[in-house]
Design goal:
Largest sheet: 6 strands, parallel
Number of helices: 21
Order of helices and strands: EHEEHEHHEHHEHHEEHHHHEHHHHHHHHH
Distance between the termini: 73 Å
Number of strands: 9
């Protein structure tokens, strides 16, 4: 291999790589790109990848030595190299390096300050440690694969990028660099065990947080970042290409809608989850009217958060989008030759931002020509921004819950509210219906029949819709926001078992009376004394009503848990 003069923040760091395939070589390539001196120990016959080493880009910036680890002279030669290295990387199955005589104990005995990095799929221990595996299996058991693909189709992997490289290589690099810092400070090396299942699971941290908070549904195609919303996904163009849309924030969505040419009424559907399929169809229809190249010109240089979906050959040929986009029927220009292990590309280093400098060539500034039929809408889109900015705190789950509340109000409250006002009392049937719909006890623990979800935004939606409907006097929000949480937090276990199930089903209705000393009013002066339900009523089954056309349901995490739990009694 070609030896190049090192430059970068890891200049002077010596890395020994025991050749393998996939995430291990990629991790060593990253260290070499950052300036480390990487020596790759190749086995006779090559790694078995089936790719000419001259075209394997993970070989770049490395030196190579051929060693047969199964020969008597092989392990001592590797240990001699390890004695002069700062980092050693290997990707064998657990126990293989030890059997070959180059495991952590032997290497650290030769060099106590060595950082010994290990790359595995399942980890060094556990029931699957010695099992064969590949990227698709590793990401399958972490839940990451289950998030990909269309709602009505099977999951599909993005090649082996998510497990091998994101969950494997990157975590190995972070681990060995952290251990190197420790070794240089203390003189003591470490063994870094990077398992792909661990790294991939860690990558899902934010999604798990959203799931726990009720902001993510555990199914595909129903969430903010998996194509569940019409303003975050891909759309086909007239020539069979695709455009990627990520207009999440209201100001970016306004720019997107303006440049796409959506009518005001169509664009306003963003704020109404019930109209998202209508909006999705409108966006798809607009994109199908023009080619990928035309849409690329329109969105280039704007904050609409739209980009063309490029192929593997197109992407490196342009460096910066927009490319000289063409119809798929247009013959492609010859692709550049595959990169060889030759001069080192500029490595990121202090004082220089990636993407800046002489190595980056800027694309031409394309015009602002619009396809026929589009028109600027000026500040009319901005008129919708206050409502959109208010709504951006709500997830699709919250908006679905909003529709459930509205349907409940229209069906169970609006037809009777005037009579309740006249009579001065609300029908018990309305409270029981609210309980069946799952609107009571949102934050009450599930074991007592509540929703078990402390997300205040559901309560905010409930209060907003009751107030908008002129039904604030029904006091359902007060029941949820004040009485329920106080009962759940301050009452004894016996009191919770006695009162909370009925509280969540609507069989027990809460009331709050406030008076001021000397004001001339007392609770005893109430025209109607409070009525309590028999405690035996708490055993009534409280399964949420089934979805019907007139009774839309929503699917937050706590609603799904209640469905799985079934009736309580």
């Amino acid at each position: 291999m070609t030896e190049t003069r090192a430059s970068g923040p890891l200049t002077g760091v010596r890395v020994l790589e025991l050749a393998g395939i996939g995430p291990g070589p990629f991790a060593a390539m990253l260290l070499a790109d950052l300036g480390a001196d990487v020596v790759r120990v190749d086995r006779p016959g090559g790694p078995g990848l089936g790719v000419d080493p001259a075209y394997d880009i993970t070989n770049r910036n490395k030196r190579s030595v051929l060693v047969d680890l199964k020969s008597p002279d092989g392990p001592p030669a590797v240990l001699d190299l390890a004695g002069r290295a700062d980092i050693l990387l290997e990707g064998y199955r657990p126990g293989v390096a030890e059997r070959l005589g180059v495991g952590p104990d032997a290497a650290l005995a030769r060099n106590p300050a060595l950082v010994y990095g290990r790359m595995t799929g399942w980890g060094q221990q556990g029931p699957l440690a010695h099992a064969a595996g590949h990227d698709i299996g590793y990401i399958a058991v972490t839940g990451a694969l289950g998030m990909t693909g269309p709602a009505d189709g099977p999951p599909y992997p993005a090649a082996n990028l998510l497990g091998d490289y994101a969950g494997g290589s990157l975590y190995l690099v972070v681990g060995v660099l952290a251990a190197l810092q420790h070794a240089r400070a203390t003189g003591t090396g470490q063994v870094v065990d990077a398992a792909i299942v661990d790294g991939t699971a860690h990558l899902t941290a934010m999604i798990h947080a959203m799931l726990a908070a009720g902001g993510w549904q555990d199914r595909r195609g129903a969430n903010l970042l998996d194509g569940g919303v019409p303003f975050y996904g891909t759309y086909e163009t007239a020539d069979g290409g695709h455009m990627a849309v990520g207009a999440l924030e209201p100001r970016f969505y306004a720019e997107f809608a303006r440049l796409l040419g959506l009518e005001d009424a169509q664009a306003a559907a963003r704020a109404d989850a019930g109209r998202w399929e209508e909006l999705r169809a409108a966006v798809a229809a607009r994109f199908r009217q023009h080619t990928r190249a035309e849409w690329t010109e329109i969105f280039e240089g704007t904050d609409a958060c739209v980009a063309p979906v490029l192929s593997l050959r197109e992407a490196p040929a342009t460096r910066t989008w927009p490319p000289a986009a063409r119809s798929p029927s247009t013959p492609a220009s010859p692709s550049p030759p595959p990169p060889r292990a030759s001069p080192r590309p500029p490595a990121p280093c202090a004082g220089r931002r990636p993407g800046r400098g002489p190595h980056r060539r800027g694309g031409p500034r394309l015009g602002r020509a619009r396809p026929r039929g589009t028109r600027p809408r000026g500040d009319r889109a901005a008129e919708r921004q206050p409502e959109q900015m208010k709504r951006q705190i709500f997830s699709p789950d919250h908006e679905a819950f909003r529709e459930t509340v509205r349907a409940f109000l229209a069906r169970e409250v609006a037809p009777h509210y005037a009579r309740w006002e006249e009579d001065g009392i609300v029908s018990r049937d309305a409270w029981l219906a609210a309980g069946r719909q799952g609107l009571l006890g949102l934050a009450v623990p599930e074991e007592y029949g509540g929703g078990g979800d402390p997300d205040f935004r559901y309560s905010a939606v409930l209060a907003e819709e009751f107030t908008r409907a002129g039904a604030a006097g029904l006091a359902v929000p007060l029941h949820n926001d004040m009485v329920g949480p106080y009962l759940a937090k301050l009452s004894t276990d016996e009191q919770k078992r006695r009162w909370l199930p009925g509280f969540c089903s609507g069989e027990i209705v809460s009331a709050i009376a406030m008076t001021e000393p000397g004001a001339g009013s007392t609770c005893r002066a109430s025209a109607r004394p409070p009525r309590t339900a028999a405690t035996t009523g708490c055993s009534t089954a409280r399964r949420p009503s089934s979805p019907t056309a007139s009774s839309p349901t929503w699917s937050s995490s706590w609603r799904r848990r209640r469905r799985r739990a079934g009736p309580r009694g």
